[in-house]
Design a protein that fits this description.
The protein is an alpha/beta fold. The protein folds into two domains: 29-211, Leucine-rich repeat, LRR (right-handed beta-alpha superhelix) (Alpha-Beta Horseshoe); 213-347, Ribonuclease Inhibitor (Leucine-rich repeat, LRR (right-handed beta-alpha superhelix)), CATH 3.80.10. It has 14 helices and twelve strands. The chain has helices at 2-23, 29-35, 40-47, 64-72, 93-99, 121-129, 147-156, 173-182, 199-208, 225-228, 250-256, 275-284, 301-311, 331-337, and strands at 55-57, 82-84, 110-112, 136-138, 162-164, 188-190, 214-216, 239-241, 264-266, 290-292, 317-320, 343-346. It has a twelve-stranded parallel beta sheet with strand order 1-2-3-4-5-6-7-8-9-10-11-12, with no helix packed on it. The protein is globular, with a radius of gyration of 25 Å. 36% of the residues are buried. The model has no long low-confidence stretch (mean pLDDT 91). Residues 53-204, 247-320 form the F-box/LRR-repeat protein 15-like leucin rich repeat domain. Pfam families: DUF7885. InterPro entries: FBXL15_LRR, Leu-rich_rpt_Cys-con_subtyp, LRR_dom_sf. This is F-box/LRR-repeat protein 15-like leucin rich repeat domain-containing protein.
């Protein structure tokens, strides 16, 4: 028995750490945390892997605020790069206020606070004070936030290149002007349902943030071609979502067609668009992989023919559901037009 016990201990001491070294890089962090309590050998092997503790994933967890404070008290999290609190429960301003001044997460690059509804402008101020080198911030659907939050962000975090403000309906032109003035290297911006923004503010962002690669303006119907034409100056733009842009016309699309790197373009419910605008897109944006024309009555087979001539080698997804001017086609006919097409949606 003594020999067997010694062999088991040797296996745990020597083999378990080797196995953990191989397995841990592929483990979700939550699974790794569960394994910490399996044995002292697992704990030692996992805790010694610095890569594993660059992410703190508390999304959808209960008592997330207390978990956050407890985790950040541990030495293994001192090189944290990602904190995910998306839909985390019980996270409040007080948790970040307790951390403010106590720690500094100088290597943190991404902070996800999506749908943390109990966070206010004060909480955003405290949270961003912890991470001066933050590059990506997501505050989706924290509906109580105002321009004061953006003031805190631009004051505390100078390196932001990815900003998601989707659903922050109380952020106004003043807030977006701060973004334009402070983040001219911005690469990704999501202003979905930021309903207080006007043409003037959007123009300033598009003029100053010329490095934008992704722009999400889903469900914003108040902008006009006065602003949309400025999108054409974004030479690096690959992703553009204009779903619901009811005032976008063919003139605006002609300007957007200068974005030759576009691969994703959502024009669903852009009801004033016609073949003229889509043909311009086809001719200018020859790398398109996804195009949605959902609900546009002003387009016909003419735009499909133009897309076939210019984008047949790239287009994989095409949505013309509700476009009554475009006729049904068999699978073979579609493949002739678009050899790479894998998803085609058409009206019934």
């Amino acid at each position: 028995m003594a020999a067997a016990s010694a062999a088991d201990e040797a296996w745990c001491r020597e083999t378990v750490p080797r196995v953990m070294e191989l397995v841990s890089p592929r483990l979700p962090q939550r699974d790794a945390c569960v394994l910490l309590s399996v044995s002292p050998w697992c704990h030692r092997a996992l805790a010694a892997n610095p890569k594993l503790w660059e992410v703190l994933d508390l999304h959808e967890m209960k008592k997330a605020g207390e978990r956050l404070i407890s985790a950040l008290s541990l030495a293994r999290y001192r090189h944290l790069k990602v904190v995910n609190l998306e839909f985390a429960q019980d996270i409040e301003d007080r948790h970040f206020l307790r951390l403010k001044g106590a720690i500094l997460l100088e290597e943190l690059e991404l902070l996800n606070l999506n749908a943390c509804q109990k966070i206010s402008d004060t909480g955003i101020g405290a949270a961003t004070s912890l991470c001066p080198n933050l590059r990506a911030l997501s505050i989706y659907w924290i509906v109580g936030l105002t321009d004061a939050s953006i003031e805190h962000v631009v004051k505390n975090c100078k390196q932001i290149i990815d900003l998601n403000m989707s659903g922050c309906k109380n952020i106004s032109d003043r807030g977006i002007q701060l973004v334009a003035d402070n983040y001219q290297g911005l690469q990704k911006l999501d202003i979905t349902r930021c309903i207080k923004l006007t043409d003037d503010a959007l123009q300033k962002v598009l003029e100053k943030c010329s490095a934008l690669e992704s722009l999400n303006m889903y469900a914003l119907s108040s902008f006009t071609d006065k602003a949309y034409t400025k999108i054409g100056y974004l030479a690096n733009l690959t992703f553009l979502d204009l779903c619901g842009a009811q005032n976008l016309t063919d003139d605006g699309l002609r300007s957007i067609s200068r974005c030759g790197s576009l691969t994703y373009l959502n024009l669903s419910w852009c009801v004033r668009v016609t073949d003229v605008g889509v043909v311009a897109i086809a001719q200018g944006c020859r790398s398109l992989e996804l195009l949605s024309l959902f609900g546009i009555l002003g387009v016909t087979d003419a735009c499909l023919e133009a897309l076939s001539k210019s984008c047949s080698n790239s287009l994989t997804t095409l949505d013309v559901n509700g476009c009554t001017g475009i006729k049904r086609r068999s699978r073979d006919e579609l493949i002739q037009l678009f050899p790479r097409l894998s998803c085609f949606k058409v009206h019934s």
